[in-house]
Amino acid sequence: MSNLSSYAVTEKWPATHPERLQLYSLPTPNGVKASIMLEEIELAYEPHRVDFGRGDQHTPEFLSVSPNNKIPAILDPNGPHGQPLALFESGAILLYLAEKSGQLVPRDPAERLKCIQWLLFQIGGIGPMFGQLGYFVKFDGKEVQDPRPRRRYIDETLRLLGVLDRQLKDKDWIMGGQYSIADIAVFPWIRGMLEFYEAGPLVDFEQFTNVRRVYDAFMARPAVQRGLDIPAPE
Questions:
Q1: Which residues does the UniProt record annotate as the domain GST N-terminal (predicted)?
Q2: Architecture of domain 8-103 in CATH?
Q3: Predicted local distance difference test score (pLDDT) of residue 6
């Protein structure tokens, strides 16, 4: 294990437990992917709140671990070859933690790739499209008089939910019987769409019975409940 004091990010967020993985995040759909994963694999970590209201995401210290100024980011003192590793992008963090722990990703090469494809389905589809829907439903976009942008993202959200609903038919989880990083990537965004954007009625969410069933199972997991509020409000 290396001394983390040489990493600029620890100047702003000092590590009380430098032997633990350091998490820099907020409880957003992307942020809780990392905290839920860490709770699921029971890896010791120390969370730090990146306060967007104070502009923490634009500070040199945070940019030293997340050049794209987005959360979450991690600094693992026990990375590959025993060296510290800083990572940003929630999908990369999920893959890294799955491989580090040997958990929540299939070992069979073909099944592993199928799991990664559903992880990328969330990163390339559900996250960006649900986020745009939220902009036009909850934020400044709702003032746009032209109805076409809003309709575009409603329709795309409906399409993506349909894809997911068909995948989940007769399955416990996205990968079938095995809970995985694909579920940890997808279902925080379903929660965000329902609870934060309050867009469930807009897309008639209850018609997607398989998504509803598996979402409820996801939300019932103790590790998910613990991870949803990390980092805790100050």
A1: 18-105
A2: 3-Layer(aba) Sandwich (3.40)
A3: 85
Look up the pTM and report it. 0.96
pLDDT at 2: 63
Give the pLDDT confidence of 18-55 residue by residue, as tens digits.
Answer: 999 999 999 999 999 999 999 999 999 999 999 999 99
What is the Cα–Cα distance from 26 to 34, expressed in whole angstroms?
10
Could you say which residues of the chain have pLDDT below 50? 1
**So where are the chain's domains?**
8-103, 109-224
pLDDT of residue 129: 97
pLDDT at residue 175, as a whole number? 98
Looking at CATH, the fold of the domain delimited by 109-224 is given as: Glutathione S-transferase Yfyf (Class Pi); Chain A, domain 2 (1.20.1050)
**Residue owning tokens 């934060």:** 196
Task: Report the distance separating Cα 12 and Cα 35, nearest Å.
Answer: 20
